[in-house]
């Protein structure tokens, strides 16, 4: 991945003799989106640490009642500020489509929340940030998205409900260029490194760049070692495991169950919050991710699927909506051209989509 010593050497020799040749050689010899990849990993790692700190300090504090949603709000805002300020530093011209905005942190009404956020962000950044700088960083996420140029999309905490329960959540960052996801990073602080040892080491980061494959590495580890990942090799859907949202309000559990029945699946579904579902399919812990819509009006958001989408593709899988249509990230902040989401390994994907179609056809007839 990194440039070899030999490559460095030949580059400088070419530069010395001929600047033009050097430039061409240089552009083809460093990996596509190398810097973006490194910066995105750093940003997701920092934000994941902030979320974990919030969970430790606030969610588990005895004084916090279960119904109080403020910890997750503090973590959402802080993580978005951390990621956006890192992106701004390295890529000042890149806009961001982020889930959160600073409205709730403004003025006297937002003072208490704002002070907590300022405190947290400053434990994670290299240089202290003022409260105004932090609000501005959060609002770098207001970009409208679209089909041309570069923009990032960020979900500072995906699976907020999972986060509060101490279960799965993910920090999700993706880079979209000309309407297509080219790079994705998923930070999954509570995901076991080895699913067969669920009480063992936790914290996984998955990263994928278009055309370069998908990898996992330990989150917040001093080692940069990356392990290639790929989807399951199961080709008979009878042997498959599928995953779905924990919340019945986010995905239609009964439609998902009918699809599983058509596919001959007998194992129970794995219910998991957040884009960790994409992570589970990408490394073969499950074969299928079903997200059948609950309502006709809900439109999926690009930050809920961008990173997961490319991680699955680069791991040898496919992602589409319930009609089998690829997710269209060029429409702005939402996936307005799509309905629901289905992900699976490439070999079983068409069979899964056919079962989805059959279920929906049957439903429309009754
Ligand atoms: N009605 C409806 N349908 C589909 N999706 C919805 C819906 N309402 C919300 N959301 C989005 O779901 C995101 C969380 O999805 P999950 O798969 O993690 O759901 S769950 O937590 O497992 O229940 C969640 O992301 P976060 O807000 O980042 O947690 C929402 O963006
Ligand atoms: Mg989300
Ligand atoms: Mg979120
Ligand atoms: Mg949300």
How would you explain this protein's 3D organization?
Keywords: Hydrolase, Magnesium, Metal-binding, Signal. This is 3'(2'),5'-bisphosphate nucleotidase. Belongs to the inositol monophosphatase superfamily. 46% of the residues are buried. This protein has helices spanning 5-17, 19-29, 34-59, 70-90, 111-124, 131-138, 160-165, 253-262, 276-282, 306-314, 346-365; strands spanning 96-98, 150-158, 170-177, 180-192, 202-209, 214-218, 227-229, 242-244, 270-271, 288-291, 317-320, 341-345. The chain has 366 residues and is α+β, with helices and mostly antiparallel strands. The strands form 2 sheets. The chain has a 7-stranded mixed β-sheet with strand order 1-2-3-4-5-6-7, with helices on both faces. It has a 5-stranded mixed β-sheet with strand order 9-8-10-12-11, with helices on both faces. Helix 1 runs antiparallel to helix 2. Helix 8 (253-262) links the parallel strand 8 and strand 9 (270-271). It binds 3'-phosphate-adenosine-5'-phosphate sulfate and magnesium ion (3 copies).
Describe this structure in a few short sentences.
This protein has 366 residues and is of the alpha+beta class. Helices cover 40% and strands 18% of the residues.
Distance between the termini: 55 Å
- Percent of residues in β-strands: 15-25%
Write down the overall geometry.
Answer: globular
* Order of adjacent strands in the largest pleated sheet: 1-2-3-4-5-6-7
For the sheet with most strands, the description reads: 7 strands, mixed
Overall mean pLDDT stands at 90
Radius of gyration: 21 Å
H and E order: HHHHEHHEHEEEEEEHEHEHEEH
Q: Which residues form runs of ≥5 with pLDDT under 50? A: 1-27
- Summing up helix and strand content along with how strands pair, one would put the structural category as alpha+beta
**Which quaternary structure do these chains form?**
single chain
Instruction: Let me know the number of strands.
Output: 12
């Amino acid at each position: 991945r990194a440039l070899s010593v030999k490559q460095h050497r030949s580059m400088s020799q070419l530069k010395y003799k001929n600047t033009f040749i050097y430039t061409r050689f240089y552009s083809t010899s460093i990996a596509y989106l190398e810097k973006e990849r490194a910066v995105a990993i750093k940003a997701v790692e920092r934000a994941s640490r902030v979320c974990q700190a919030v969970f430790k300090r606030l969610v588990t504090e005895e004084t916090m009642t279960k119904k109080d949603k403020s910890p997750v709000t503090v973590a959402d805002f802080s993580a978005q500020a951390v990621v956006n300020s890192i992106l701004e530093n390295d890529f000042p011209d890149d806009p961001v489509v982020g889930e959160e905005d600073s409205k709730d942190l403004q003025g006297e009404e937002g003072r208490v929340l704002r002070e907590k956020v300022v405190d947290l962000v400053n434990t994670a950044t290299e240089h202290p940030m003022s409260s105004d700088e932090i609000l501005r960083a959060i609002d770098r996420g207001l970009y409208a998205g679209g089909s041309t140029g570069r923009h990032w999309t960020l979900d500072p905490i995906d699976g907020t409900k999972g986060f509060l329960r101490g279960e799965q959540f993910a920090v999700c960052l993706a880079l979209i260029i000309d309407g297509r996801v080219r790079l994705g990073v998923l930070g999954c602080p509570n995901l076991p490194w080895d699913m067969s040892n669920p009480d063992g080491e936790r914290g996984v980061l998955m990263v994928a760049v278009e055309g370069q494959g998908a990898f996992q590495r330990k989150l917040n580890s001093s080692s940069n070692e990356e392990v290639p990942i790929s989807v399951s090799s199961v080709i008979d859907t009878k042997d498959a495991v599928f995953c779905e949202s924990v919340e019945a309000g986010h995905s239609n559990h009964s439609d998902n169950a009918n699809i599983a029945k058509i596919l001959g699946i007998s194992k129970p579904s794995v219910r998991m919050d957040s884009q960790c579902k994409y992570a589970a399919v990408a490394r073969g812990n499950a074969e299928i991710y079903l997200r059948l819509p609950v309502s006709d009006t809900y439109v999926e958001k690009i930050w809920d699927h961008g990173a997961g989408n490319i991680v699955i593709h680069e791991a040898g899988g496919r992602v589409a909506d319930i009609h089998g249509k690829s997710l269209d990230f060029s429409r702005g902040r939402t996936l307005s051209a799509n309905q629901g989401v289905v992900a699976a390994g490439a070999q079983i994907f068409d069979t899964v989509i056919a079962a989805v179609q059959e279920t929906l056809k049957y439903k429309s007839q009754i």
